[in-house]
């Protein structure tokens, strides 16, 4: 396995931060898989040739974007931004002893990835797997988003698959047209909050109407909250320069992460949602309880602003990010080919730490995930070449890196409960008064 440059944590830097109770042994990031182009486990060689001959499979048009882990498998998303992507969700084995390019197996099946069939997956950008083994899939329903003629095949939807049961049946839940526009919505990333009926907080980086979509599973209801200042791109951060290539990507709200539970001053349980536009140097935060307030979705721009905190700036732009169960945020700094982390118990401006930097292997950090053995994974996909149609099939374009941290995903963070309510004071006073009256009656009897 290839070893990447790891920036050691010096004692002086560690002393400036509030350490966790125990700091697990860290490993350097290593390449566990890499591909020049993506190929699949076809049902037959004839099928592969047929797909190639009819341009339903164009190898250089298949991009790995999202990643997640369950059981012994790594799930990968393959958004249909260009033509020739035969499957939009697939998986590979998680543990293998070499870095050869494994062929991807469509998930749940080939037929469940058929374009134009709204019982199947159309355009999957990202997925999350919750603590109950439910896979939450963002399906935009629109394909060819980087072509001249994008085509809306099906409504933008949340798709659920119960991995724990092993049946892998698809449940598709179209999002309300009051929430999404099938022609402009771009469901980008999500986090899942397994409390109070199960919620998903979803970034919609629509070019015309960006925002955070809240989806509640218990009644399958959704709403969208907007804030122009924190959720839209800024011109000074829209230009990306990597390895001699320059690309302009004025992309709105993109990455999202969910912090551990905490008790508020009025002793309610809450969580912090972190987010940022791709074309921005800022990281923002808002409480999940605010996003759950449906009434804010009906108010004009600015209604959400009093609840949003600008945590400060980063050295470069960030695509995907992920929180662990203790409150450590992992994120990429694209322009400097860097993987960074931040312990959210300390100030953001002082607490950011570089944990890996390598311009040869870390070229566009996309999404992160954790397995159940204490490893963190990251997708590297050279997106800047992909969007400019400059993918070379003679070079490695996609990598999965892995590092042992001893930590787990935010999905497994500790559940908190509000303190037990005190005994009803009014009732106590009433009982005491009644006993006093009874005692006086006995005294004067």
Tell me about this structure.
The protein has 445 residues and is mainly β. The chain has one domain: Neuraminidase (6 Propeller). 11% of the residues lie in helices and 34% in strands. It is built from 7 helices and 31 strands. The strands form 9 sheets. The protein has a 5-stranded antiparallel sheet with strand order 1-2-31-30-29, with no helix packed on it. It comes from Vanessa tameamea (Kamehameha butterfly).
What keywords describe this structure?
34% strand, globular, 7 helices, 445 residues, five-stranded antiparallel sheet, mainly beta, single chain, Neuraminidase, 11% helix
**Discrete helix count:** 7
Q: Structural class of the secondary elements?
A: mainly beta
Based on DSSP secondary structure assignment, what is the total number of beta strands?
31
Please tell me what the overall shape is: globular
Q: Mind telling me which CATH architecture this is?
A: 6 Propeller
Q: How many discrete structural domains?
A: 1
Per DSSP, what share of the residues sits in E-state strands of 2 or more residues? 25-35%
Main beta sheet: strand number and arrangement? 5 strands, antiparallel
| Adjacency order of strands in the biggest sheet | 1-2-31-30-29
How would you summarize the topology of this molecule?
Blueprint: E1 2-3, H1 11-15, E2 30-35, H2 45-53, E3 67-70, E4 73-77, E5 89-93, E6 105-106, E7 124-129, E8 134-139, E9 142-143, E10 151-152, E11 157-162, E12 170-174, E13 187-193, E14 199-204, E15 211-216, E16 221-225, H3 228-231, E17 239-242, E18 245-248, E19 253-258, E20 262-263, E21 269-270, E22 272-277, E23 282-287, H4 288-291, E24 309-313, E25 321-323, E26 328-333, E27 338-343, H5 348-351, E28 352-357, E29 365-370, E30 375-380, H6 383-387, E31 398-404, H7 425-443
Antiparallel strand pairs: 1-2, 2-31, 3-4, 4-5, 5-6, 7-8, 8-11, 9-10, 11-12, 13-14, 14-15, 15-16, 17-18, 19-22, 20-21, 22-23, 23-24, 25-26, 26-27, 27-28, 29-30, 30-31
Subcellular location: Secreted
Signal peptide: 1-15
Keywords: Secreted, Signal
């Amino acid at each position: 396995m290839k070893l990447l440059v790891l920036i050691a944590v010096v004692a002086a830097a560690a002393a400036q931060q509030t350490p966790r109770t125990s700091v697990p042994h860290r490993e350097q990031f290593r390449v566990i898989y890499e591909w020049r182009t993506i190929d699949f486990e076809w049902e037959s060689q004839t099928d592969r040739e047929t797909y190639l001959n009819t341009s339903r499979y164009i190898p250089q048009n298949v991009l790995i974007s999202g990643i997640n882990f369950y059981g012994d498998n790594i799930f990968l998303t393959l958004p249909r931004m260009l033509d020739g992507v035969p499957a939009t969700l697939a998986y590979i084995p998680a543990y293998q002893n070499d870095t050869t390019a494994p062929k991807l197996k469509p998930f749940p099946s080939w037929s469940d990835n058929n374009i134009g069939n709204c019982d199947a997956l159309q355009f999957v950008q990202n997925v999350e797997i919750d603590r109950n083994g439910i896979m939450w899939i963002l399906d935009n329903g629109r394909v060819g988003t980087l072509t001249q003629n994008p085509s809306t095949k099906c409504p933008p939807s949340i798709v659920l698959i119960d991995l724990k049961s092993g049946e892998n049946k698809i449940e598709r839940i179209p999002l309300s047209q009051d929430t999404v526009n099938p022609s402009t919505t771009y469901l980008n990333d999500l986090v899942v909050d397994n409390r109070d009926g199960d919620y998903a907080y979803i970034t919609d980086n629509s070019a015309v109407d960006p925002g955070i979509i809240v989806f509640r599973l218990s009644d399958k209801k959704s709403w969208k909250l907007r804030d122009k200042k924190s959720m839209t791109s800024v011109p000074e951060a829209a230009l990306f320069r990597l390895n001699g290539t320059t690309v302009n990507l004025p992309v709105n709200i993109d990455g999202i992460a969910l912090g551990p539970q905490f008790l508020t001053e009025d002793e309610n349980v809450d969580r912090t949602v972190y987010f940022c536009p791709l074309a921005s140097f800022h990281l923002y935060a808002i409480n999940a309880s605010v996003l759950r307030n449906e009434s804010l979705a009906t108010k004009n721009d600015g209604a959400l602003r009093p609840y949003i905190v600008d945590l400060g700036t980063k050295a470069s732009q960030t695509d995907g990010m992920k929180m662990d169960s203790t409150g450590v945020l992992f994120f990429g700094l694209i322009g400097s080919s860097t993987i960074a982390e931040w312990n959210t118990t300390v100030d953001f401006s002082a607490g950011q730490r570089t944990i890996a930097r390598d311009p040869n292997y870390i070229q566009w950090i996309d999404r992160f995930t954790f397995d159940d053995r204490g490893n963190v994974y990251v997708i590297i996909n050279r997106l800047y070449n992909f969007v400019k149609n400059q993918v070379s099939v003679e070079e490695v374009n996609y990598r999965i890196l892995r590092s042992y941290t001893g930590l787990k995903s935010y999905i497994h963070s500790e559940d908190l409960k509000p303190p037990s309510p005190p005994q009803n004071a009014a009732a106590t006073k009433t009982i005491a008064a009644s006993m006093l009256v009874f005692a006086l009656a006995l005294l004067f009897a």
